[in-house]
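SEQUENCE-TO-STRUCTURE ENTRY
===========================

Subject: a protein chain together with a token-level encoding of how that chain folds.

Sequence line: the amino acid chain in single-letter code, read from start to end.

Question of interest: how does this chain fold, as expressed in backbone structure tokens?
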Amino acid sequence: MKEEVKTTLNPAEVKAKPVSKTRFVVFVGLCIAIMAVSAWVVIPFGPIPFTLQIFAVAFAILVLPPKQCMAAVGGYLLLGAIGVPVFSGMRGGIGVLAGPTGGYLWGYLIGAAVALLFLWAAKKLLEDTSKKSHVKGILIDIIAALLYVAVAYVCGWAQYMVVSGVSAEAAFLATVAPFVVVDIVKVVAAAFCARGVRLAVPER
């Protein structure tokens, strides 16, 4: 006679999956909202306005797990592409992504992927060497965010140059040079804010 095997599920295990999904949706939605609001804070400055988007995306990269981060940035771009006014100046539509300044937006997604890959590699290295410290953690976060910004710059510079039909030098002076110092400040601020949030909010 075969023995019947009874299995019981821990109530915590039953609840873990829905809670995890809820957390995923809430965190992604919150970061999308932060990106949208940051894009509405605009200081006109030539063809490329000053906004807080660099800070918002860097914050998402550093505070969210990789899947949530990519979902947040991708969701933000998708909402803008279908016409929701989440881009700078409360604009939306595929025309913004294809326009002179659209390269920055594409660059956010590509740059986020590069930064997350760097963070993963750095985390593995620290685990292997058992060398962990608060200062090193902050430096790694800042380097990751700077990589994201660099990719966004390249994408923004290239698309502006092609769409506007200007020289590489002129495009660089319009889309990159005026923002470097301010964006470094945003990146450092994002790194410290993200670390504070990670310490305050448990991973599970």
Notes: Helices lie at 11-40, 53-63, 66-81, 94-98, 102-129, 134-164, 168-175, 180-200. The domain at 15-200 is CATH 1.10.1760.20 (Arp2/3 complex 21 kDa subunit ARPC3). The chain has one domain: 15-200.
